[in-house]
Amino acid sequence: MTPHILTRSLDRSATVFLVVVAGLGVLIPLSNLLLPSGSALQVPTYLVALFGKYACYAILALSIDLIWGYCGILSLGHGAFFALGGYAMGMYLMRQIGSRGVYGNPILPDFMVFLNYPALPWYWHGFDMFWFAALMVVLVPGLLAFCFGWLAFRSRVTGVYLSIITQAMTYALLLAFFRNDFGFGGNNGLTDFKDILGFNVQADGTRAALFALSCLALIVAFLICRAVVTSKLGKVLIAIRDAESRTRFLGYRVESYKLFVFTLSACMAGVAGALYVPQVGIINPSEYAPGNSIEAVIWVAVGGRGTLVGAALGAVVVNYAKTYFTSGPLAPYWLFMLGALFILVTLLLPKGIVGTFNAWRESRKATEKANAESAALEDGVGEPKPAE
Amino acid sequence: MVTKLTHDIATLSRRRWLAATAGLILGLAAFSNAKAQETIKVGVLHSLSGTMAISETTLKDTILFLIEEQNKKGGVLGKKLEPVVVDPASNWPLFAEKARELITKDKVSVVFGCWTSVSRKSVLPVFKELNSILFYPVQYEGEESERNVFYTGAAPNQQAIPAVDYLMKDEKVKRWVLAGTDYVYPRTTNKILEAYLKSKGVKQEDIMINYTPFGHSDWQTIVADIKKFGSAGKKTAVVSTINGDANVPFYKELGNQGIKATDIPVVAFSVGEEELAGIDTKPLLGHLAAWNYFQSIKSPENEKFIKAWQAYTKNPKRVTNDPMEAHVIGFEMWVKAVEKVKSTDPDKVIDALPGIEAKNLTGGTSKMLPNHHITKPVFIGEIKANGQFDVVWKTPGLVAGDAWSKELEGSKDLIGDWVGKKCGNYNTKINKCGGQGS
Amino acid sequence: MSANFLDRLRALLLAISLAVAFAAPALAGPFEDAVAKFANDDFSDTDEAIGAVATSGNPLAFPIISALQDGRLSADPDTKKVFITQADGRVIDAATGAAVDKLPDNAAAVRLNNRLRRAVEAALGGLTLLSPDPAKRIAAAQSVFKSHEESALPVIDGALAKETNKSVKAAFAEARAAILLYKSDATEVEKLEAVAVVKARGDQEAMALLTGLGNDLPPNVARAAASAIASIQSNLAMWSMVQNAWYGLSLGSVLLLAAIGLAITFGVMGVINMAHGEMVMLGAYTTFVVQEVIRSNYPGLFDYSLLIAVPLAFLVAGAVGVLIERGIIRFLYGRPLETLLATWGLSLVLQQAVRTAFGPTNREVGNPSWMSGAFELGQITITYNRLWILCFTLAVFVILLAMLRYTALGLEMRAVTQNRRMAASMGIATSRVDALTFGLGSGIAGIAGVALSQIDNVSPNLGQSYIIDSFMVVVFGGVGNLWGTLVGAFTLGIANKFLEPVAGAVLGKIAILVLIILFIQKRPRGLFALKGRAVEA
Amino acid sequence: MSVMEGRTTSALLYLDGVHVSFDGFHAINNLSLTLEPGEMRAIIGPNGAGKTTMMDIITGKTKPDEGTVLFDGMIDLTRLDETHIAELGIGRKFQKPTVFESQTIEDNLLLALNVDHSVKGTLFWRGSRDESERIDRVLETIRLTDARNRLAGSLSHGQKQWLEIGMLLAQDPKLLLVDEPVAGMTDVETHQTAELLKEINKEKTVMVVEHDMTFVRELGVKVTCLHEGTVLAEGTIDQVSSNERVIEVYLGR
């Protein structure tokens, strides 16, 4: 990627976002590891794991925002790519257990032993090597997205139809992964991980490192998204979002653009899933549940569709609310709150938190400018209006 | 006049509202003050929303009820017990997150929770890492014995195998349909049963295995297949490990297609009083369930418990079931262990628990074993028209729970022993810990 | 079949034939001893008692055993006395038949288990071969057919000679053939005739009977039996196709019912209502409430509970639908994806609300008697509840179609679908039409809930399990076309049911989903898509 | 690309015997029409005459049931999709002005420029002097230079029409299809638009669909009147407007 793409992509809010994420990515692990436990400033390990989870969700939200916010593709099956990435990582982690499983079988994971697998299924080979697993984390979701997108975009399945068939896709995967014959551990999924790259996944140091890595991945994902949306390709994406058929008549091959950005987004979701799994310690088919994917879209809507910072922020805010409200006396009511949040945000805050804030700021700027202009000169082009 | 009245009402309601708010704030303050007092915290990790709420909500209420009863008796070690309830919302990673929160943030001494195997698997690394205690109250597939987990539900040998024995001996069943939901518990149980049946001389062609997805609702084809399989001239029975929600449409279809218990009896391992409360049981008369507890069992302990429970829930029709009893036993064992070592320190309690005995509700005394499973009686009940079970058979004594199934190739040499051998997967053949070895 | 049971049956039939032949008077002593065994509350003793009573030839045998089956036989464990509560409420002593004032306080109903229930049925079957009720005679003949017990032959022969009822006669003939087939000293001609009779019966049980024959048959008979098996097999294979088709229709009707409301809200208004499933759930809970009220206040009306629930469910779900449209959806027209998200939030709220109000567990909704049970059509079993649901679905479909075609609201709805702006300028109050259309779609979902309560769980999760399937049906059939939804639902239902025996339930469902995804690529707007410029706008 | 064997016609656009029906409704019925290079043609006709559908056919949005549609004498347009046809050099302005409302006017034009339209090309695109000069020229032509940084959504209806024409210019096609360019414009704007189109016609072939008779008269070009998907009359505006059948269609019934 050429430098001008990077420089172009950094405006003020992007820079602030990057600095904050980088700061947290450094400070939280340091505070967790260096400060004595119990001190007021020390971040307890369970919070590190929690924040790491949020960071992964934020990457997922970015990937959804990239296609929905900028290209108008509402995927209600992005959880599938997230989960596929997670499974690829989970398979690596399972292979790392080696003979420390409860049955002590050096090759077969525990669930295969008690379901009497005679040998490792062919698709489990190679996952004992990290580089291979890491490649699969990106490749498998990317390939699925490419095939799915190639079929769907070429035949111009758009709007709600696309949303519904993405639901069908993730639902079909959900059913498939639930099957124990499929060789991915069925409903229990993959769990009881021990090591990642030789480090104990439960050690504080590993957790801190994974958190820092998640922040780094978030930064990289953010930069990639910014680079894409601020390039001319980003303008084409927005053009497709706003007037797909116009874009076609201008001579753009809309399906190629959609396919590119959809695949890119799926790869990002896969990476998010891969980082998520060692931090939460389990990957199981419920990650494919259609509801999960819809929920991820809500994060983006809450934060602000079409603003990358908003998407990441939305993921963190909604998930923090979920963490907060599922404990304590409000626990029985949290679904009411979650549901109400979805309704209120779509009704009252259609641009999300960041989008609304931006609009407010711009309208203020525009008013100031208009005042200044009308004082100076009436140029007849027409009165400046606030954006939309 | 009217305006004055509305004004009054408005002021009144505003005042009320203010008072209520103030009360709430005070209440919260009192609540947090109470926290400052020395209590022993007990974590409750059961889903209150989502798909598993249907089963788990009752267990949350059970623990709250047990804590209240215990506190009436003066608590434990002179301290009151304080429940900390969280909602993992039927979401497995959230189970792990909430478990972590309960142990590190709320500093609970023990957690009662989980229903599905996957939720247990999800929290297991957390309990190991943070060294805390989980009481798991549901019948499960076995093949596990962990230091930090105490399994108060049935292992396969405490439910599945006695049930099959009963059908073989008493009903002379020769042909078997093993129908289950496609997840680990039915898979493992059916694997164990298949091996067991074959060891009893049942041929492969007399065993039909069928798996369906969660929440399967269209049972026409499968019930017809069962009917067909059952009309081959040999006495046939269905062993059902069908999970929760799928049972209602399954039994409805059975009833409507006219399969009576006298023709093809169905013995279920996941259908209890709670599930039957949602079904019209008249067509199901005589179908069976195997559990370690039935509400209809007559014993002074049980009658007392049911009475107190119905009073606590203010619902004279509220039913009780097997996982509830498991919590009752587990809770009492934990209390006794804590009182024995006069501490809630997890290591001490874990070491003290094996050997602890507690009265179960069916008139016997269950004992915690070194493999962290307990001894339980096994009952076979027939469904009655009133949604209860009529016990038609029971084991002569208590059955000790096997962590590792003797019927499976991978685990037949393993035992769990946290007292002598200090591990959960001791291999009796090579005399060391670590599974099958290599 | 247990040997012990067969022994008993043999003894029983012998006793009956003796009774028929000599009309022997009842003996007192052993009968009373046998009756007293009922009081021991021990399954083996009860078993013996049943055998002894049934073979006693005592006139009280039939009342005792039928009372046992109905739970009207009670025993006093202390005095070992056994009592029959008669249908009119009077109590008699089972051993003597003498009237008793009332049951002793500690008398408890004699318990049964499945084994005993079978023994009771067999005993009653033997006692009813000569029953005046033809239905009971047929049932008795059926149990002889299954047991093919030689000792029953004289009774059957006698009964067959006297029998005038055609279907009972056929049943006796089949029972006789079954006995002859297994009778070692039957002639070859008899056996060949028997094979022909059993072959004509042609069902699963006939096949079980033939496959169960041993190897020591005369070669001619063995050949005939083999060919009979083959013919029954191919016959059954044909029927199993019919059965699959029926199951497919039945599943299709459920899908159609769940999707048809969606076809209106989604097809006519373009609103993606993710809370559609919850409307179905509300309908099911309405049924539950109606049944509860009827149970506690007007138990006689129970069989009509569904008829009462249908309009109520329509009103409840429809009213909620109108509220949703007025409160949320009307602010989101033209933003289908946002509507999707908001209604999904709404579905969470509704689910949790129902969970809070009714509890998280399943609630019991009973089947009225006219929806219970099944009947045989050829070699397939058709259950009444599925049949009624299919009829009901088609009725709803026809009514809806007629409504759209012939009523003013229908006309306005179609106008709004085809050209909203034009309709508005023609003076149609589009917002009123929107609210009513949405209410109609939701109301129909509510009606679907009434029907689904008969075959599925009534729980807060009820709706969720249908939402994806419903969307698949609508999208597959083509948006905005009710016929498309009809064809889509039945196609998916039948395809699913033909895949299920081959691939299993899970893989079958996955295959269907994948096929739909591929199908949408081929025809992005479904089977019956509207063509033309208007839909592009 | 589907290229015929040799050139069969000198016409830039050649339609012959084209049929399209939607659910039994014959939108285009045996339509035949040719457009010579450099020509400007006005298409008139009542509502539902098939004008927009004809444009849909030429630009590949709708596939005809039968008939020949040739571009440049040898390219069969019925086999190509919109993107391909646009790349061949056929530009289209929609009936309802369609611009990218949430992007600036400058970006709208930038997107329309006929430069590398591949994914890779746009991802690594860097502006060039040539491109910005071309945008400046177009802005000049459509008189929106001062508004270049405003969002297209904030333009008035007439301005959007112009922007869309500007986008056509930036696209630099051989054939422009212009659907109702003066709908909703003031008289002055209509006049200016006519002038603009005449200017454009100096270099390019243009097909204009319009209802506004004054505007068509002002263009002063050959007119084709469509009715029920087929050509009713063709000739100068005076010839066509005096044609009895045309009068009948417009005024009668």
Core attributes:
heterotetramer; A: 388 residues; mainly alpha; two-stranded antiparallel sheet; disordered C terminus; D: 253 residues; alpha/beta; Rossmann fold; 2 domains; 6-stranded mixed β-sheet; 4-stranded antiparallel β-sheet; globular
Detailed description of the structure:
- The complex is a heterotetramer of chains A (388), B (438), C (537) and D (253).
- Chain A has one domain (3-374).
- Helices cover 70% and strands 2% of the residues of chain A.
- Chain A contains 15 helices and four strands.
- Chain A has helices at residues 3-9, 12-34, 45-71, 78-97, 110-114, 130-154, 159-178, 204-230, 232-242, 244-249, 254-280, 290-303, 308-325, 334-348, 352-376, and strands at residues 190-191, 195-196, 199-200, 282-283.
- Mean pLDDT of chain A is 87; it is low at 377-388.
- Chain D has 253 residues and is of the alpha/beta class.
- In chain D, strands 6-7-8-3-9-10 form a six-stranded mixed sheet, sandwiched between helices.
- Chain D is globular and about 55 Å long.
- In chain D, 45% of the residues are buried.
- At the B-C interface, helix 2, strand 7, helix 7 and helix 8 of B face helix 5, helix 10, helix 11, helix 15 and helix 20 of C.
Summarize the structure.
The complex is a heterotetramer of chains A (388), B (438), C (537) and D (253). Chain B is of the alpha/beta class.
